[in-house]
Specification:
The chain is an all-alpha fold and 507 residues long. It has 14 helices and no strands.
Length: 507
């Protein structure tokens, strides 16, 4: 039988293995470099960048505009998975070559085998993965250290990086991209399991894997190792409102309140919603002239869309609108904007002109039958906090804001028409000239809120709390206020109205 030391047997094989090991080592180093780049870029994604959808600028590429944020968080992990697949396949090929090279050592006595392994290690390229798979490292401590390096960089790091990418993008609350990122985690785990644990294993005559005496125990261990990232991606890294958001509900104190800044997940370093309190948020920083104009009541009233405003005032209002953020159709549920400046922010449904026209036609056709039609892609602010925020002139038509907090917020001339704000807190809010036409405000709190000139008809104010609010009975003439809590004077005035014009008050 030929010896592994025979040049006619191993020289060509060793040369081929060294070439393959050199290629794998270069590929491995490049993969680590790409992973490090992805880590740095995703680490720099702040909550404000998520809100503004700030493009991601790649190093070494002279692209001024950068890559669109949402596209980056799809393409970057996808390329990581594909790159990882290529690396795993090349390492598998190297493993097969090395295994064939050392087969003759199985028929060599222990002393000669140890000598040949030591000699062979000096002839193979110094690539940790290759020498480990060849069983050429005799020292146990060295073997542990080399395995730590290879396993951490080849198997553990890519999965953890994919989870980190998902974590960084999580506050954006885009279920489609979040599920794509979960799919990437599952694919990467499946690739590792298939290539490392199944592909190339010895097979029987029927093609089945040869049973191993300790396979049951190993199977349980490997199952646990692969299940942990899957569970983490699917259940732990779920943003509030997703159907599978059950883990944090089960460990959170009752009632479950995942508002950013108070979510129990944040105790473990997981922030699942946008936290942008005490920020001045504009698309374009306004000039001093515009800031001065915002101190004038006429400008604030004109933000409501007054028809008789002069040309100069209308131009000022348009400049304010152009400088304001557009967050149309975004999912801002459980976000924290407390004490932030969001003047004239646009939170309308994300519809183009044709879609708006079709929606209006559909709504008009359904109105006579008493049906309620909601537009697609409407802004979701459920459970969010805008307490103390400056929302003068904000546009929130059709917004979904159940359980949202607007305590002491400035909503002068804001448009909340047809919005859904059940159980929302508008206590002590400034809502002069606000438009709440057709809004659903059941059980909402307006205690001591300033509602002078606000449009409330035909809003649904059943069981709402309007005690202490600056409001006239005439404003409630067309509203549905059955069960609403009102000041005695306002209630007496409403009771004196004809039955067709007044609802049934509650105490």
């Amino acid at each position: 039988m030929s010896s592994i030391a025979d040049p006619s047997v191993d020289e060509a094989a060793i040369g081929a293995i060294n070439d393959a090991a050199g290629y794998c080592r270069t590929l491995w180093a490049t993969f680590i470099g790409y992973a490090a780049t992805i880590f740095v870029l995703t680490s720099g994604t702040t909550h404000e960048a998520l809100l503004r959808q700030t493009p991601v600028k790649l190093p070494l590429f002279n692209v001024e505009s950068g890559i669109p944020l949402r596209l980056f968080y799809v393409i970057a992990p996808l390329l990581l998975v594909l790159f990882h697949l290529n690396l795993l396949m090349k390492l598998h090929d190297l493993r097969v070559r090395v295994s064939e090279l050392i087969i003759p050592l199985n028929w060599t006595d222990e002393a000669n085998a140890a000598f040949e392994r030591s000699r062979l290690r000096r002839r193979l390229m110094a690539f940790d993965y290759a020498v480990l798979k060849a069983g050429l490292v005799s020292d146990r401590r060295e073997r542990v250290l080399l395995r730590l390096v290879t396993d951490a960089t080849i198997f553990i790091m890519p999965v953890l990086l994919l989870l980190f990418v998902q974590l960084q993008f999580l506050p954006y609350h885009d279920w489609k991209i979040s599920w794509l990122q979960r799919l990437f985690v599952i694919l990467d785990l499946g690739m590792i399991a298939y290539i490392q644990l199944w592909l190339g294993k010895p097979r029987g005559q029927d093609g089945a894997a040869v049973p191993h005496s300790s396979w049951n125990g190993r199977m349980l261990l490997w199952s646990a190792l692969f299940a942990a990232p899957f569970i983490l991606s699917l259940f732990v890294l779920a943003f509030p409102g997703e159907p599978q958001d059950v883990f944090w509900k089960s460990v959170s104190p009752r009632p479950y309140a995942p508002l950013a800044g108070g979510d129990v997940a944040e105790k473990f370093g997981i922030r699942r919603s946008l936290y942008l309190a005490d920020r001045s948020l504009w698309a374009v920083e306004p000039s001093e002239e515009l800031l001065r104009a915002l101190t004038q009541d006429s400008t604030i009233i004109a933000l409501h869309g007054v028809d008789d405003a002069g040309p100069e005032l209308l131009r000022t209002v348009q400049r304010i609108r152009n400088a304001a953020l557009s967050l149309r159709g975004r999912n801002l549920s459980y976000a924290n904007f407390e004490s932030s400046t969001l003047i004239a922010v646009d939170l309308s449904p994300d519809l183009n002109n044709e879609q708006v026209r079709k929606f209006q036609e559909t709504r008009a056709a359904a109105a006579p039958n008493g049906n309620s039609i909601e537009p697609g892609n409407r802004t979701d602010m459920s459970g969010a906090s805008f307490s103390g925020a400056d929302l003068r002139g904000a546009r929130l038509p059709y917004a979904k804001g159940d359980n949202a907090a607007f305590f002491r917020a400035n909503l002068q001339s804001a448009v909340l028409a047809y919005g859904q704000f059940a159980n929302a807190n508008f206590a002590e809010a400034r809502m002069q000239e606000a438009d709440l036409y057709g809004a659903r405000l059941q059980s909402a709190s307006f205690q001591t809120a300033g509602l002078q000139g606000a449009i409330l008809g035909p809003a649904q104010l059943q069981n709402a709390d309007l005690r202490g609010a600056a409001i006239a009975s005439e404003q409630l003439r067309a509203a549905q206020w059955d069960g609403a809590r009102l000041d005695d004077m306002v209630m007496q005035q409403l009771k004196s109205m004809p039955a067709a014009q007044a609802g049934r008050p509650g105490r």
